[in-house]
């Protein structure tokens, strides 16, 4: 039976662990081929760092199972690559290891992208996308040229390949005159960000040529999507050649692609792109090869939803975003009147050919603070919006352009505006929506809404899939993104944990962006997957109207182009309870108080005396080395060896910082890491990364009240 845990994060002066102890477990860099057809079994390769240490495969959703295929001796040699690099080598040591996987897909599995992760004794890897497709895969054969392309015998099909440095892949196919051909690429959709490349993704470009070599179509971006799509009314029955390459001719193993090719359904846009949650609305579809251009649709969720349609032959189209409006709101769709903005009024509007801008009236109270927000690019519009606030005489008071939305981890150009204003003088004001480049048309639509001027924040939790051995401990990170410092208590609600689970380190710095929480599950926990839900609420006891709750988005962090970091949403937040580890590290139960492990530290103390207990599996006989984490010059402990059979140790941790000694109130968290055969770094010190076994204690909070 799962239990629900509630705790407050009070923003007091605290010190927390800010680095992660989960580094270097496994990193998935690419999957090839990155998808397979429903009702088939496919062998794929996963490349990355330490992926050959995986023991099982986790795929989100129903209808898909996967297993690791043990390579033969010849394959073992091929799969293990050198990790050294030459100066002109575009390969990466992070892609040096490979693993063969067999994926079995049920014929009724829902098409679309799934999260694929690897699991080992050290934990669970990051996720990459694996697509459940509707059409047969046609893998490339390396060395294709314009004169000798890969033949595609029948359409529709999915063309699969990897682009290596300077390479262009070619495919040939026959198409009949008059059909509407679609060639839609997934490249960045498969590997959203690449850490060591500029731009930080595979920037694919495709072209189509007829049998005489004449180019009939080309694309390197489609609307706001860097993955290209070609839609072509085929001019004549002929054999055509499709070519794909990187726009600046880079390449390596993680430049993978899938191209859906054929007379397949494709939605370009919908109108309107917003409706009330639960209310059926007639949607007009613009696209090709669709069974119908009308759809009765009721969004399930407030905020983001997605729409698909049925094709002429029963296939399912691509999905596009759709905005769900709160049931209690008054939604106005492209009304010609000059509307007045009220608390419950939401507008779906378009900058059409007759209107270079739209204006709305707002009646403000004295000293009132409000926020106006435009949703456009985030729901598939081409609008590069700007908000301008004017007084009755037309004087410009404030304007807003691009505002970054942390919840949109895949978006690199944040073009939607948000404007917050305090009205000192009551009266009538005008809010104006326009396109920065003065573009207009049916594709320049938006949702406009007035929001309460509460403190805006977003919550992420990572890793999206947390691995904990029975009786053991792991760590997850909560990230709170806010443009302003949060000085009010935040209450978290975490549900779905195994009964008896203990959390620790629940308080963080005032205004801190991240916190790490340790999760310790009982030894008798059921092995398997637990769906978790985490939300965060800002609570102001003096003004309950200012309370705000946000659901945490499960995400994995990815780096783009050597610097930028993005939270990439995953299918959900889950806990995977695995078999018992060879050993566990525990603190005495009397240290667990107030919902966390805690030990006092007097102002005169310079040494922490910390008792720990080690629980061994009966058949495990390797010595364990205990060290403190995080390691820094102010918190020092000489590594302690624990011999087989020893169940208790008293650790002595030196606290050397004069600043820590001076603080009347103090709070910082540490962990004890136990390793077996840790690697030796270049300085001759043993590390816990890539150890044969690595287990951690709960976070214990050192306090001085």
The whole-angstrom Rg is 28 Å
- Annotated CATH architecture of the largest domain: Sandwich
CATH level-3 fold name of the largest domain: Immunoglobulin-like
Shape: globular
Helix percentage: under 10%
The total number of structural domains is 5
Estimate the strand proportion.
Answer: over 45%
**Which ranges are low-confidence, i.e. pLDDT below 50, for 5 or more consecutive residues?**
1-20, 81-88
Provide the CATH top-level class of the largest domain: Mainly Beta
Let me know the average pLDDT. 85
Model description:
- The strands form 12 sheets. Strands 48, 49, 51, 53, 55, 56 and 57 form a 7-stranded mixed β-sheet that branches. Strands 1, 37, 39, 42, 43 and 46 form a 6-stranded mixed β-sheet that branches.
- It is built from 2 helices and 57 strands.
- The chain is mainly beta and 705 residues long.
What's the SSE blueprint?
Blueprint: E1 2-9, E2 27-32, E3 35-37, E4 41-49, E5 56-59, E6 64-68, H1 73-79, E7 97-105, E8 112-120, E9 123-124, E10 128-133, E11 137-139, E12 150-151, E13 157-162, E14 168-175, E15 180-186, E16 204-209, E17 215-219, E18 229-233, E19 238-246, E20 256-262, E21 266-271, E22 274-276, E23 281-288, E24 294-297, E25 303-307, E26 320-325, E27 330-333, E28 345-350, E29 357-364, E30 368-375, E31 385-390, E32 396-400, E33 418-423, E34 427-435, E35 445-452, E36 457-462, E37 465-469, E38 473-482, E39 490-498, E40 502-504, E41 514-520, E42 528-538, E43 548-551, E44 553-560, E45 564-569, E46 573-578, E47 583-586, E48 592-593, E49 596-600, E50 607-616, E51 624-629, E52 635-636, E53 640-642, E54 648-655, H2 658-662, E55 666-676, E56 693-696, E57 700-704
Parallel strand pairs: 3-10, 11-13, 12-14, 22-26, 27-28, 36-44, 37-46, 49-57
Antiparallel strand pairs: 1-39, 2-4, 4-7, 5-8, 6-7, 8-9, 8-10, 13-20, 14-19, 15-18, 15-20, 16-17, 16-19, 21-23, 23-24, 25-26, 28-35, 29-34, 30-33, 30-35, 31-32, 31-34, 36-38, 38-41, 39-42, 40-41, 42-43, 42-46, 44-45, 47-50, 48-49, 50-54, 51-53, 51-55, 52-54, 55-56, 55-57
